[in-house]
Amino acid sequence: MNKTALDLQQRVLALIARGVTQSSSHDEFNELAQAIFAFQYERCAPYRAYCDRLRLTPQMVEHWEQIPAVPTSAFKDFALTCFPVDEAVAEFHTSGTTREKSGKHFFHTLELYNAAIKPNFAAHLLPDQARLRMLILTPSPQEAPHSSLSHMMGVVTKEFGTTDSNFFVKGGTLCLEPLVKTLRETEKARQPVFLLGTAFASVHLFDHLAQQNLRFNLTDGSRVMETGGFKGRSREVSKKELYQMFDTFLGIPPMRVANEYGMTELSTQFYDQTLLAGVQTDRKVAPPWSRVLIIDPNTGKEAKEGERGLIRIYDLANLWSAMCIQTEDLGVAISNGFEVLGRAAGAEVRGCSLNAEELRM
Amino acid sequence: MNTSVELVEEAAKRTLKASDRIQHRGTDAIIRALAQTARDWLKPDSVWRKRASKEAPAVTGFSKEMVYEAVDLTFGAITEESLRELLEGLRKEVAEPRLTAHFLAGNVPPPGIASICVGLLLKSANLVKLSSRDPVFPTLFVESLRQVDPELAGCIAVFDWRREEIALTQAALAEADAVVAYGDDDTIESLRRMCQPKAHFLGYGHKLSFAMVAREALTKTNLPQLVEAAAFDASVYDQQGCLSPHAFYVEESGEVSPREFAAALAKAMAAYQARVPRGRLTVEEAAQIAKLRGAYEFRSATDTNVLIWASSVGLCACENDGAGETAQAGTPMLPTNWLVVFEEDPMFTASCLNRVIFVKPIRQLESVLQLMQRFASNLSTVGVAPMNEHTTAFAKELAKVGVNRVCPLGQMQRPPLSWQLDR
Known about the structure:
The complex is a heterodimer. Chain A is an alpha/beta fold. Chain A has 2 domains: 3-108 and 288-325, no CATH class; 114-282, Rossmann fold, CATH 3.40.50.980. Chain A has helices at residues 3-17, 26-43, 45-54, 74-77, 111-125, 148-160, 176-188, 199-212, 239-250, 274-277, 356-359; strands at 70-71, 90-93, 104-107, 133-139, 166-170, 173-174, 193-198, 223-227, 257-261, 270-271, 290-295, 308-315, 324-334, 337-343. Chain A has a 7-stranded mixed β-sheet with strand order 6-5-4-7-8-9-10, sandwiched between helices. In chain A, strands 1, 11, 12, 13 and 14 form a 5-stranded mixed β-sheet that branches. In chain A, strand 12 (308-315) and strand 13 form a beta hairpin. In chain A, helix 1 runs parallel beside helix 5 (111-125) and helix 2 (26-43) packs across helix 3. The longest helix of chain A has 18 residues, at 26-43. Chain A starts with a helix and ends with a helix. The mean pLDDT of chain A is 93. Chain B has 2 domains: 5-204, Aldehyde Dehydrogenase, Chain A, domain 1 (3-Layer(aba) Sandwich), CATH 3.40.605; 208-421, Aldehyde Dehydrogenase, Chain A, domain 2 (3-Layer(aba) Sandwich), CATH 3.40.309.10. In chain B, strand 1, helix 6 and strand 2 form a beta-alpha-beta unit. At the A-B interface, helix 3, strand 1, strand 12, strand 13 and helix 11 of A face helix 13 of B.
């Protein structure tokens, strides 16, 4: 690794090591972001070509908000790396549809990724510093080596979970019997549990419990991290409905359920402030090594607080790929934080033309 | 408008009485009244045009210039001759309904107006449920008709209610022996199910259109009017109508290449925008465009198989916007009023609409058949340049793939009134 890369990596790691309680100053973030921009412009050819096309090069950019954002779709078309792709130690894939290519995020090192996971996760989900038995409704990282979510679950289980933590998706299926057995055990033993997984898997569990007429009342201290939404699935459940189900079926109230917003294209995750605040909230706060802007697609500028726009993320931990990512998700800024509203899909046609959504492309 | 079941029932009775009173009339009189009304709209200083320009933009989202254009297109199609032609077609097909219920949808005016004309030519009573996206045109149309022929206008009652108010829909359907429904497949299906069993039901769902350019049309001398026609078809109604093309398939080996065609089309889109601006977009619509644009802009920086043109200016980070502050640096999120995307891959890609148009090269016109095969049940219109012996013969092949209408490029948005029956 050359001197610049090493230096940048150390600086990002140092910032992450300071934790999430104190925000980074404007100048500190700006300087580091611009240094990383220069690094990525130099090392990543498709990104450089794009910046040249926009005439937004490191010489021209004065403020981190001007750094060109890479659309998430670009991960499908290009290997966005600042290192030779064959030196990648890991690659995570987006869950593309059978028709579409999947996006690929290549890693030169997982050091930054793993560092970024821990303090953020701990601060938001374990503010009481509890060490809990984790019941994970995703495949293990061994079974799904290209899933960033599974990788993350592997990291947090090891770092924060008890030794009897477990993964409950095997061979692509949710293992309902063992899961129910574990819920029964832990309920009886008054052992608090930490349920983590996709919203979709949770609903699958609840459908099963409903069918079997089972309900649990898990001990205080039990909590949930849910993620993923329902992109493209046939059954959609609102966040409110979903959280009601955690309460009904597991006895875990909404104030102990937090949403995680993450994606294959990023190294950093974003959490509801719920467990910190002690009350259910959809507000998320970006950790100090990141920034989130809500962009009004009608003006191209930052949206006013409370107004919807597209979420743009600046993630310094994405040093070796693309720091600035333009997502396809709608969000809204709320007092120093933001709320994720969902995918900006399905614009209703005002006329009588078929659009892409209706054609199910 | 606060509607109740009683009001709908009363309107049914009222319009039935009114249509009884015109049964003795010759259709010529009806044709004359409708044609006169259309002429009244088309006058440059017409009060109807003024009112539409004032009232329609807010609900339809169109600019007032586009509303003006919509007046020309809608009422330009309604003449003595076109009405006579429509009537000819009607006589062959439809038994005369006593009462017709029209359920309008979308913000594109011509289908709703044409539908009402059909109802009047058949001397039917008409209950019209307005589209939430355009309650203006049909309402003003009836008002304008009332000035010319109050007795005829009395055969129409216009209402506004939300889809969820099922009792009102049922009240309208209770008396209807003919139902005309516009909208998406789900809407049409649910209306079909609610009809009287003996009612004659016509459903017009969402459709897909595209255009083709044969190499004979791709000459340097022809290029300016070719792309002007293309830009018109792609931009009218902000591309939201079922007749609006999503893509242009352009034959290779002409004097002008498909890439050159795309570049010229971009200029023509800009020219049209300057004359008739695109309307306001919702956050979702703008987000769709930003998403599509971001993907193609990024690709085109590296991939020579992709070219993209947009209307936004000021990509230079150092531009001063005149307000004293440096303009927001250029990113693909800077809004654009239109997009032209050239892509070598001929596979059909649906546009997100609002003046986002694809240009794809093909070896020969016939390739289109295979490319569009899978959309057979969804196709409407194909615009063609030029219309000659070869392309006209090809039109028959297109019909086999489900295409409903083939017309010259530039005419896609000007179907004859009689097409109302063939769509």
